[in-house]
């Protein structure tokens, strides 16, 4: 099922599609927690991948990885719209990145259908291609004491 | 800098390489928190991408996304080695996935050189290709109350 290119890196394939209320980048909130209440979004998993959803129902939160299909290519350093200093792209969650992979920790509100998940806390565009679903594990993924660097003063929640 | 294939999905490029003590899949711990103390690993960022590291120094934790270059292709349902029930791949953190993208939340122990980051809590193979670095933000990424589903009884920490 997996193909690799000549550099040994995986060739990506969409496993589903994410529906959100955000039709343009200007519609997207700064992060998935900014809107209160956060809209419930639907993630449709393509039929071929539905068997991979078994045992997912018992997790309260998931990590979604998706393709940032509207990202602009390239600058490694830029001044974020809500800041006044140039920042390296890897110190930001901006959607334009050398590898346009997006990531969100979402609340999993159960299945709307066997191939459709209800989730909250997305900030990506409508029709974003889904690449992976992973269970969120507080034992490895939760760091309450983490410091937010230059983003601390812009914290929205 | 970013290329896309005909489906609109990003073509991945390595931005660096991850060095760990784990030379084979059998060497890899079950997760990055299993070894105590966790070994300090080095992440080398290729020269072209080093400018993107600006402002990273003030974050205590990072999210690394990497290519699972030794993953085996394909089964969507399998019985994990430490469990006795078949599980859907998306309810696991197993390295064989439809899109072989790995993810780790790591402690960032600073720079060993301008292009080399010291990090802890990796469980991936030595020489894993790095795809992205994102700042870890407790405001969006930390869910202490998340439930671990079928993995709860296998929790290592």
Folded structure, characterized:
In chain A, strands 1-2-7-6-3-8 form a six-stranded antiparallel beta barrel. A two-stranded antiparallel ribbon of chain A has the order 4-5. The mean pLDDT of chain A is 90. The radius of gyration of chain A is 16 Å and the shape is globular. Chain A has one helix and eight strands; from the N terminus they run ββββββββα. With 157 residues, chain A is mainly beta.
Descriptive keywords:
homodimer, 157 residues, mainly beta, Elongation Factor Tu (Ef-tu), domain 3, six-stranded antiparallel barrel
Task: Compose a concise summary of this entry.
Two copies of one chain form a homodimer. Chain A is an all-beta fold.
Broad structural category of chain A: mainly beta
User: What is the typical, i.e. mean, pLDDT of chain A?
Assistant: 90
Task: Specify the CATH homologous superfamily of chain A.
Answer: YaeB-like
Chain pair with largest interface: A-B, 82 and 82 residues
Helix content bin of chain A: under 10%
Strand content of chain A: 25-35%
Q: What is the number of helical segments of chain A per DSSP (H or I, 4+ residues)?
A: 1
**Second-tier CATH architecture of chain A:** Beta Barrel
């Amino acid at each position: 099922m997996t193909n690799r290119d000549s550099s040994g890196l995986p060739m990506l394939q969409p496993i589903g599609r994410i529906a959100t209320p955000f039709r343009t980048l200007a519609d997207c909130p700064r992060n998935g927690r900014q809107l209160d209440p956060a809209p419930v979004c639907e993630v449709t998993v393509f039929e071929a991948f539905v068997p991979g959803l078994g045992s997912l129902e018992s997790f309260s939160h998931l990590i979604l990885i998706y393709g940032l299909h509207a990202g602009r290519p390239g600058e490694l350093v830029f001044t974020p719209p809500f800041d006044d200093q140039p920042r390296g792209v890897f110190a930001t969650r901006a959607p334009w990145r050398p590898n346009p992979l997006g990531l969100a920790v979402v609340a999993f509100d159960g299945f709307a259908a066997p191939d459709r998940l209800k989730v909250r806390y997305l900030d990506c565009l409508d029709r974003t291609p889904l690449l992976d679903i992973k269970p969120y594990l507080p034992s490895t993924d939760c760091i309450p004491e983490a410091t937010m660097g230059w983003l601390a003063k812009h914290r929205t929640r």
